[in-house]
Structure formats: C-alpha cells, structure tokens
C-alpha cells in the first residue's frame, strides 16, 4: 500500500501480462495520474481493501478469476470507484454484461492507446466534479429521484422504465430508448441525464431527422473558420456543446448511412475533429439515442449500420405505448392538465368528468401521451366549466356511443372496434368525396392505422376467426397474430373469444 496516494487521482490497473501492465502504467503516469498495479483478482482486492481509487481498469481474464468479480464486489459494497473492463476482441457480450453490471465503460483488445486515454479521461473527468472520497468503504453518492417525478405513472410498465433509468445512471454506457412516437422517450432521456452525475452539465437534444443531410456534419462536429464558403468563424457542433454531459440523438434511425459511419468513428474514438481542423478534440459525452423504428429490422434491411447499432444499443429501454399502460391514464391526464393550466396562467385546474375518463380509457391513442396532451389542450379550450365532459374531448362519434354508458360493449364487433379505433384522419381518407386526402404528418403511423382498420374489418367479416380473416388477405395465422399484436388488437380479439387461438 502506498500511503502517499490520494483517492483523488489514483488508478488501479489489473492485468496479468507484465508488458501490458507496464504499457498501461506508463500511459497513465504520462497523464499525470497515480497508478498502482495488480496481476490477479486477489492482489487487486487486497489493494482495494486498503484504499479507495478513482478508477479501476481491469482485464476480464485473470489467472485466479474474472475482472467481473472485482466489478461485482465493488458494486455490492456500493463503492465509488469507476470500473473499466478490457475484453477480448469479438466478445461483445462480455462488454455488454459488464456495462449492465455497472462498469463505466469497456475497451477491446488490442487496446488502442488513444482510446484508452479517452476512456480514462472520461472516467476521471466525471469523478473530478464529485467530492473526493477519503476512506475505504466510502459509498457513491445516491442518485436523486426528483427528475423521475416528471415521468408520471406507476403502472408496472412505467416502474420498469424507472428502474432501468436508475440502474443506468451511474454508468457511461450508451442507452437506446425505443418506443412509438409521443410515448415520452425524450422525457426518459432527460431523466437519465438528470439522475446521473452529469446532471449539472449540458443536455443537448438533437432531432436527427430534422437536419438537412448536407448540414449534418457541420452541425454535429462543428467547423473552423474558412473550412468552406460561408464559414466566417469557428463554430462548435453538438458534440462539443454536450461535452461533459449527455447528447440525446432523437430519431437516430433517420441518419443517412454516410453520417452513421462518421458518428461511429466519433463514438469509438471519443474525439471529434471539426471540419477544417487539424487536431481532434477529446470528448466526454454520454450518448442516449431514441427511435420509433425497429432498429434491428433497419439493420437487417441494411439501412442502419450493425456496428453502430451494437455500439448505441448497449442498454435498451423500451417505453410502452400509452394504450398498454392505461392504469397511468388518470395520473398522466391530471399532471398534463396541471401543466397546461399553469402554463396558461389559468386556475383552478379543471377535472375530467367520469364520462370523459371512460371515453379516454376506450381510446387507443396512436399518438400516445403527446396526443393526450393535444387532446386536453383542445378540451380546455372547448370546455365552458371546471369539468371537462366527454363531448369536449373531440373524440370520434363511434367511440362516444360505445362508451357512453357504463356497460361493456355488447358484442365482439363493438369490443374490437373500440380497442382498435382508427383515428379520424385515417378514417377520413376513404370518405373524402373529392381530391386526394391530405398528406399524413407521420406516414408510418398513418399506414399502421389503415392496416388496423383493414384487419378489424376482415376479422368482423370472418366472425373473428383469425385464420379465415388472414387467408382472405393472403396472410398466415402467424402473420395475422404478429400484425394484430403489433397494432394492439390482440387482447380485444381474445376477449371477444377468438376461436382459433393456438
Ligand atoms: N409519463 C409521462 N408523464 C408526463 N408527461 C409525459 C409522460 N410521457 C410523455 N409525456 C409528455 O408527452 C409529450 C411527448 O413526450 P416526448 O417528447 O418525450 O415523447 P417522444 O417519445 O420523445 O416523442 P417523439 O417520438 O415524437 O420524439 C411531452 O410533452 C412529454 O412531457
């Protein structure tokens, strides 16, 4: 034990290959860090019993066990050390496992020293802003729960989302948030940032689908004065702006392939070179991405790079559609009404009548929480009292009739129609007498709704026999089940006593 070492910038490196250990040690010493080394789990643990380090860098395979053992022990004891694991080339599962277990980051052998320095700088940079830990056994600061309060909902599905957010907060691992439009993916990304030690640093949200292709590079990486016509001064990109904090890449599936390659390079090397610059700038940015697309399918269709997908998708947080967490509808509606009236400076906050709540619960919310928010905005404008009635919601008449009474919908057809309600725009298309329907704002959502309407009609025509309804449209039972599940009409059909469940 070296008494002179402070916890401040002490790094413990664990590797059983003496040459590598020396190489790592020299690299770290050159960075001005204080280094101790160990060649086995036992040796490392003995050192960790004596003092606290800022960072532990460990090879995965050691003569007497695995680097994961050290990670698990440190996690169990809630120690403050960040852990970086070094895994063999091609063992991505190990790396992912380590990140899920709480590792700060991982490096793959053969270790690129530039990357090594970048990862270490990120780990040290993050810790520097925290109070120095003085004694063995000191615990990491608890994560703050306040940011999670903005994410309203106590359904099982939301509790799972919250748990995941808390779990990933301490790590640097990239997170992919998946879910339909308007489910709250950005809110989840913000919560990850705010719960993490990066909370005081910038959170930069970028909608990848909204930036013209020819501007992507300069927007992301910045440029130097004179790099191209019109570059009259140096300009930072999103990465530099997010340095020290979190970069939220919304609609990552919209990035063109050429930009995906450039993004991968920056993410791997943890450094960015602005257009026209000679030198790279080191980065310490956590990446949280989001998509409403099935990115695995995009990879299969060669529209998304597999290597980038694996890099961004270390931890996946699926955010379920609102129709799958109707338990949360009342609390989310109240929170939204609170927010809307507060923003408008109106009081008191109106309430939803029992009829209005019933009507909302019968709706399928293809636009999820954002649609609920818009709907409540409109309802507030329509309502003339402190009570928002069903009629103020502006929902389609079919739904209105079905849920007006307290009784359950009378027959299978009604149950299915209510569950899989087609939004007004989708229904309107075939009814319009002259001229083409307006272009949809969201083609995928629009087509989903058209498909939903067709499936419901086919099922109704075939007395809810999915095999027959599918066969009528050239679909196997398996394809029907898949499509019904995807479009959220499985349950209604089962409730309705579908005769070919198997
Ligand atoms: N659980 C929730 N509690 C309170 N408000 C929510 C919740 N989920 C979403 N919202 C609100 O719904 C709106 C849409 O959320 P958000 O922008 O995070 O969705 P998104 O999934 O990122 O949407 P998109 O895919 O269109 O980018 C926001 O105003 C957000 O504050």
From TrEMBL:
Residues 10-124 form the Response regulatory domain. The modification 4-aspartylphosphate is found at residue 59. Gene3D superfamilies: 1.10.8.60, 3.40.50.2300, Homeodomain-like, P-loop containing nucleotide triphosphate hydrolases. Pfam families: AAA_lid_14, HTH_8, Response_reg, Sigma54_activat. Keywords: ATP-binding, DNA-binding, Nucleotide-binding, Phosphoprotein, Transcription, Transcription regulation. InterPro entries: AAA+_ATPase, AAA_lid_NorR, CheY-like_superfamily, Homeodomain-like_sf, HTH_Fis, P-loop_NTPase, Sig_transdc_resp-reg_receiver, Sigma_54_int. Residues 151-381 form the Sigma-54 factor interaction domain. It comes from the Bacteria. The keyword Protein biosynthesis does not apply. The keyword Phosphoprotein applies. This is Sigma-54 dependent transcriptional regulator. It comes from Ideonella azotifigens.
């Amino acid at each position: 034990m070296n008494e002179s070492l402070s916890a401040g910038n002490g790094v413990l490196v664990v590797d059983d290959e003496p040459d590598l250990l020396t190489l790592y040690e020299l690299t770290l010493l050159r960075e001005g860090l204080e280094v101790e080394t160990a060649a086995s789990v036992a040796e490392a643990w003995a050192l960790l019993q004596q003092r606290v380090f800022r960072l532990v860098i460990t090879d995965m395979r050691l003569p007497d066990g695995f680097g994961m053992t050290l990670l698990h022990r440190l996690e169990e004891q809630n120690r403050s050390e960040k852990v970086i694991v070094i895994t063999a080339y091609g063992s991505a599962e190990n790396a992912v496992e380590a990140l899920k277990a709480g590792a700060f980051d991982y490096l793959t052998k053969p270790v690129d020293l530039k990357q090594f320095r970048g990862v270490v700088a990120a780990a040290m940079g993050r810790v520097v802003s925290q109070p120095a830990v003085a004694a063995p056994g000191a615990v990491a600061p608890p994560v703050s729960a306040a940011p999670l309060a903005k994410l309203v909902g106590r359904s099982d599905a939301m509790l799972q989302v919250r748990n995941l957010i808390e779990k990933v907060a301490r790590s640097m691992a990239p997170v992919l948030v998946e879910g339909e439009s308007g489910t709250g993916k950005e809110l989840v990304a913000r919560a990850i940032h705010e719960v993490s030690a990066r909370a005081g640093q910038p959170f930069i949200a970028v909608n990848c689908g909204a930036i013209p292709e020819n501007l992507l590079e300069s927007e992301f990486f910045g440029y130097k004065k004179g790099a191209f016509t019109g570059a009259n001064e140096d300009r930072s990109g999103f990465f530099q702006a997010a340095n020290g904090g979190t970069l939220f890449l919304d609609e990552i599936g919209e990035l063109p392939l050429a930009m995906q390659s450039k993004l991968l390079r920056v993410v791997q090397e943890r450094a960015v070179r602005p257009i026209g610059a000679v030198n790279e700038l080191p980065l310490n940015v956590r990446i949280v991405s989001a998509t409403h697309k099935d990115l695995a399918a995009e990879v299969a269709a060669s529209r998304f790079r597999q290597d980038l997908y694996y890099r961004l998708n270390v931890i996946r947080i699926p955010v379920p559609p609102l129709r799958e967490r109707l338990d949360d509808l009342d609390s989310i509606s109240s929170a939204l009404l609170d927010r809307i009236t507060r923003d408008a400076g109106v009081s008191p906050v109106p309430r939803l009548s029992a009829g209005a709540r019933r009507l909302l619960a019968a709706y399928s919310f293809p636009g999820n929480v954002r649609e609920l928010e818009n709907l409540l905005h409109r309802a507030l404008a329509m309502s003339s009292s402190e009570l928002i009635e069903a009629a103020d919601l502006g929902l389609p008449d079919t739904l209105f009739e079905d849920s007006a009474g307290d009784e359950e919908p009378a027959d299978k057809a009604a149950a299915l129609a209510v569950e899989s309600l087609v939004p007004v725009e989708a229904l309107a298309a075939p009814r319009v007498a002259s001229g083409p329907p307006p272009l949809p704002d969201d083609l995928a959502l629009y087509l989903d709704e058209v498909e939903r309407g067709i499936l419901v009609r086919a099922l109704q025509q075939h007395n809810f026999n999915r095999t027959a309804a599918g066969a009528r449209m050239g679909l196997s039972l398996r394809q029907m089940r898949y499509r019904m599940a995807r479009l959220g009409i499985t349950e209604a059909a089962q409730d309705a006593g579908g005769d070919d469940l198997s």
